[in-house]
Amino acid sequence: MNNEELSAQLSALRSGDINAFEKIYTELKTPVYIIIVRITGDNGLAEDILQEVFIKLYHSPPADDVHNPRAYICKMARNFAIDGLRKLKVNASLDELEDTVQAPEHDFEFRMDAEAAMRQLPATQRQIVSLRINCGLKFREIADITEEPLGTVLYHYQAAVSKLRKYLSGGAL
After folding, report:
1. pTM (2 decimals)?
2. What is the pLDDT of residues 88-110, one digit of tens each?
3. Closest-CA residue to 75 (of 31, 27, 9)
4. Could you give the C-alpha distances from 61 to 22, 58, 66, in angstroms and in order?
5. Residues 105-157: pLDDT tens digits?
6. Going from the N-terminus, what domains does the chain have, and what CATH number goes with each?
7. H and E: helices and strands count for the chain
8. 109: Cβ–Cβ under 8 A, 6 or more apart, which residues?
9. What CA–CA distance (Å, rounded) separates 150 from 160?
10. Alpha carbons 159 and 123: distance in angstroms, whole number
11. How far apart are CA 55 and CA 50, in angstroms?
């Protein structure tokens, strides 16, 4: 579903169309879940936060003036995940959480290898890669979401891709 179709579904949702919500949920539940689980490192917490994100979206869909609803929803998921961590761990920072990400249980060997490689990345790089790959966001959109300069986002992404290639080809990070 592209952003125009997503905007149309959100408009229908604002008008009370429950089928529009179901379509949005079906389309975005997996990428949103992956972003949340990569930030929280806890499948159960990620499922709870996923539900919170979509409940909030159902009750308060974004206004028509949101130009990129996919980026809006991914940012919402990221913010809910970070808030969920703060509730669990007082004064937790992303740096303290670098080694806590778990892989989704339904994936096979390559995906498990990719998840193992992702767990080796610093939290900032892991978020940027997830927003790029799972949400399909542009680097400028990721920079807006993470509130980092575009150059920093590009640097972190390139460094992460390099580390992932090295790890997946048999090297250590």
Report:
1. 0.64
2. 764 344 444 444 444 444 444 55
3. 31
4. 13, 6, 10
5. 444 455 556 677 787 888 888 889 888 888 888 898 999 988 999 999 999 99
6. 3-168 (1.10.1740.10)
7. 8, 0
8. none
9. 15
10. 13
11. 9
